[in-house]
Every structure is written in structure tokens, then in C-alpha cells.
Amino acid sequence: MTTVQIPVDRAPAQAGGASPKVVARTGLYALMAANVAVVTYFFGQSGFGTNALILMGRVTGLYGTLVMAFQFILVARLPWFDRRLGMDRLTTWHRWTGFTLLWLLLSHAVFITLGHAQLADLPPVTELVDLATTVEGVLRAVVALFLIIVIGGVSARYARRRMAYETWHFIHFYAYVAVVLAFTHQIAAGSTFNTSEPATAYWWGLWTFALGSVVVGRFGLPLYRNLRHQLRVAAVVPEADNVVSIYITGRDLHRMPARAGQFFLWRFLTRDRWYKANPFSLSAAPDGRSLRLTAKAAGEGSASLRYLKVGTRVFAEGPYGAFTAMHRTKPNAVLVAGGVGVTPIRALLEELHGHAVVLYRVRDPRDAVLLNELRHLALVRGAVLHLLTGPSAAPTPRGPLLAPHSLAAMVPDIRDRDVFVCGPPAMTDAVMTSLRELKVPKQQVHAERFSMAG
């Protein structure tokens, strides 16, 4: 264990009020609730009919369409929401609402088919075929449902872990096809859509906003920023045998709205890498002149970064993430890093005010990336740096290295600090469990998953 400490005056506490996460989360809930109310109103105006099964089919179809639009807003990467909630949280919500969407649309198909089969006194399969071949828009809806089932299947945890990211991402593009097919079905066959001019205007407005958010957030804004900043590789610096830092320069970088702790999706525009986007955190606080990322060779793509040539054009999407000082609630902080997850922690240490304790967990001291920089920053900032080495389960007088008693011994006032955690999932989960046992308030805990950070 290495400890460096110089006393420093504590930074003043931030002003009170609702946290950015609470404000953004409340905004999303309010947006969803308002749309549910509007859809319910237009549904009531369109009439309920006499068949209970068809009624249930219409209800599940309407709310399924609303959830589908909400899905696109969650992954539109709108900066205001992303800075306050983070891509990790938004992506998790997208995943779970995706399964909700799947069940709603399946229920819609089943109830509508059974209801019409009951009215026509026909077997359900026969009625489904009849609807698909005689009613405009139904066949498109069947194809859309099939695509959504496929997308839902590959998004299940078991399938996702066994599939290359590029394959999974390509299959997800079919969601846009499903949306077009489902919306044209709604236009052709949706009685609530056509019940009045305000209802029609509402649905068109909802989908214009949802798809427009995707176009702006995922395509328009990245394209604008890259055309403006003209990013290029300025230097490639090996940090260790399997770790390299890439320095990026460009025009007007002082106007790039990046903060320490955030990450970009980086594309290096070479013949063999231009189509690969990899998430790497900034490993130094933005200074308005350059950006730096530090990557460990975890695969063929990241291993090839050390061979990039100076002057290589870069296309960067971002900055993304809520792992920033914007979310601090206390004047002092604890920064917990594991492995190459230290990169956003190192950047945060450079930007944070107030007293900080850094816990850097590695299996072997040789794995401690950027350790000299951390030691220098600790001296300059008056922080305390603990380098924790050895197996996670290695016995100590206070239990495992990141167990509750160990954390409390290293940081006695941990309940009065913000805690920032970034590292491999197992380590992050262990720290989060320890923090819960120590009763650190939830609003003071900020975690970034290693998969998005490094």
C-alpha cells in the first residue's frame, strides 16, 4: 500500500436543491405520464366498442406504440439527459422498457386476433391470415412484430453475451424498419389515430419528436462537432506493455463541452478502423487544447491503437456520461478505481476541489496505469492515495481489500463524502455492496461501469 498526503483546506459544500439526476429523472417521468394521459384521453374519445378482447388489443397496442417512441428518446443521446443520467442508466432503462414493449405488442397481436376470431367465429390462425391479407397495414404489423421479437431475443442476457457487439448493433438497426412498419400500420388501421384531427396531429408530433431526437442526438450533433473541431491524433505514448495514451488535438477545443470523467465513442479513420467505434474515457481533464484517452489492449482493436500515426483523422461521438463533478453533493470525495478504470478517476482527481481519497485497486503493482501521474496529482491536490494490490479475496486484518471494515478504516468519514467508483463489474459490485453496508447515502454514490469507461 502506498500513501501520499498533504493537508488541504476543504472545499465549501455545494448549494442545496434537487440533484441533476433527480431533475432529469423527474422530467422523463413527467414526459411519459403526460403522454399516457393524452393517449388515454384520445382512446376514450374514439369509443370502446363491444368486444372486450379487441378493447384490450387496442389498449396494449396504443401503449406499446407510446413505449416504442419513448425507447427512441432514451437512446437518442440528447446531451441534457445524458449529462444528468448517464448512458449506462439510460441504456438500462431502454433495455427494460424494450421487454415491456415486446410483451405489449405480443399482447396486442393476441387480443386483436382472438377478438376478431370470436366475432367471425373462425379459428385464430385462420383469422390472423385473413386480417393480414385483407386489412391494410396488418401484414406490415406482423413483419414489425417479428423484427421486434428477433431484436428482443438477441438483447436477452444469454444471447447478448455470446454475440459480437458489431453483430448485435447491426441487428438493432432493424428496429428502425420495425418502427416504420408499425407506424404505417397505425396510420392505416388505428381508430384512435384517426378519431380526430388533434389525435392525428398528436401521433405525428410524438413520432416526429422521437425520431427527430435520434437524428439530432446520434447523427446531427456528432457530425456538427467533428466538422467544427477537425480532430486528429497528435501523439501516441506507450504507458506500459499493453497500455497506450492517445493525445487528440483540433480546432476550438475550448468549445468542446467535455468534462473530466466523461467518455467518447472514438473512430480512428484508418483503412482498418474507420467503422469501429470504441468507448474510452478521457484520462485527463480537458484543458481546451487537447483531449487524452488511455486504453488497455483488451482485444485486437484496442491493441492496434499503439500503431496509430500522428495526423490520423478522428471521428468522436460525445462527450457522454454522468460520471462528473456536476453530481457532487459533498465538499469531499472518495475515488475508487480498478484496473484501467482509473482513467476517468485520474481525470476527476485533476478537476475536483475539496479533499479527496483515492483507492486504486490492482492485482499487481505493475498493472497500476498512470500511477506516477496519480502520485503527482495527490501531492498537488493534497489528496490521499492508497494503492491496493493483491488478490481480491486476500486476507487482511479487516477482511478483503474493499470490504466495509477496510473502507471504513481507510476513510473513516466515508459517509460524509461523495464516492465515485469505476472498474470491472465484479469490483464495482463489491464496492457498491460495501457502501450499502456502511450506509453511505445513495445520492452520494456515483458509479461508472468498466465496459463504458475503458
UniProtKB/TrEMBL annotation:
Q: Which UniProt keywords apply?
A: 2Fe-2S, FAD, Flavoprotein, Iron, Iron-sulfur, Membrane, Metal-binding, Oxidoreductase, Transmembrane, Transmembrane helix
- Could you list the residue ranges that cross the membrane? 22-43, 55-75, 96-117, 137-159, 171-189, 201-221
Gene Ontology MF terms in the entry: 2 iron, 2 sulfur cluster binding; flavin adenine dinucleotide binding; metal ion binding; oxidoreductase activity
What Gene Ontology cellular-component terms does the record carry?
membrane
Main localization of the protein? membrane
> Which segments does the entry list as coiled coil?
none
The cellular location(s) given in this protein's UniProt record come to: Membrane
What CDD domains is this protein classified in? FNR_like_3 (cd06198)
Keyword Cell membrane attributed = no
Annotated membrane topology: Multi-pass membrane protein
Q: FAD-binding FR-type domain: which residues?
A: 226-326
CC cofactor: FAD
Domain of life here?
Bacteria
Query: What name does the UniProt record give this protein?
Result: Putative ferric reductase
State the species of origin: Umezawaea tangerina
